Amino acid sequence: MYPIKSSRRLAPDIYRLEVQADHVATSVKPGQFVVLRLDEKGERFPLTVVDADPESGFIFLVVQAAGYSTKKLVNLSPGESILDLLGPLGEPTKIAKFGRVACLGGGVGTALVYPIAKACAAAGNEVVSFIGARTAKLVLLEDELDSVSNELVITTDDGSRGIQGYGADVLARRLQAGESFDRVFAIGPVPMMKSVSDVTRPADIETIVSLNPIMVDGTGMCGGCRVTVDGQVKFACMDGPEFDGHDVDFEELAARQQYFKDHEECYLQNL
To answer: How far is CA 202 from CA 62, 145, 196, in A?
Structure first.
């Protein structure tokens, strides 16, 4: 059992959970994730670890209450427990002193970009972070990202905060104006990661994206998280979750994300 110490609402339907998971807290690295099962009859689902405190044994998760299991998770109160928590899983982010790094987060992907930006800064990189959200009230972890970035850029679809538009478009304009980056990280909805990869491809900037397809066991056995990268089948839970965005078949990924959508809607009606 994995007790929940705290649950805090960051934005509408988005929560930050602090969970006791000593074995994860002492070994997790940026980019890695855990697979949770809330109860005996619950489904298994992945969440990226946003931060960890090895001394206390707590890990921090940012959860968007979008599906049946995530809605049940955010409804748990401090003191209640998660039945199973497996991890850390996946290959950690490859961090080095690249030079100038752009870290783009879209929606809840902003929370997943934070540990990467933090690690890049610690490695001596110049970090420019881009936070993208639909509207001002959905902007996440602004203070946290600002503290590890040389520059923080905020964009909103409706213009209610920062620059109106998308992070990929802002990045494109900056590249066209002569700015350069040595590495780009982009995490968010599939269309957002595809757009960023399309922007950086002509400039030949290595661009790392983090994929979150349907997962079941997190060990590569079920095959549910298979994706096509550079024409080859990969398993996001074992080979990823991070891949070169220029090689990902985003159209296939988007289609696979819709699998079981009808089943999910049926379960939500009974929540």
So the answer is: 33, 28, 11
How do residues 47-84 score in pLDDT, each as one tens digit?
Answer: 999 999 999 999 999 999 988 889 999 999 999 999 99
Query: How far is it, in rounded angstroms, from Cα 1 to Cα 9?
Result: 23
Report phi then psi at 145, rounded to 5. Answer: -70, -35
**pLDDT (tens digit per residue) in 141-191:** 999 999 999 999 999 999 999 999 999 999 999 999 999 999 999 999 999
How is the chain classified by DSSP, letter by letter?
Answer: -EEEEEEEEEETTEEEEEEE-HHHHTT--TT-EEEEE-STTPPEEEEEEEEEETTTTEEEEEEE--SHHHHHHHTPPBTBEESEEEEEESPPP-----SEEEEEEETTHHHHHHHHHHHHHHTT-EEEEEEEESSGGG---HHHHHHH-SEEEEEETTSSSSEES-HHHHHHHHHHTT---SEEEEESSHHHHHHHHHHHTTTT--EEEE-----SSSSSSS-TTEEEETTEEEETTTT-SEEETTTB-HHHHHHHHTTTHHHHHHHHHT-
pLDDT above 90 (res 135): yes
Its pTM stands at: 0.91
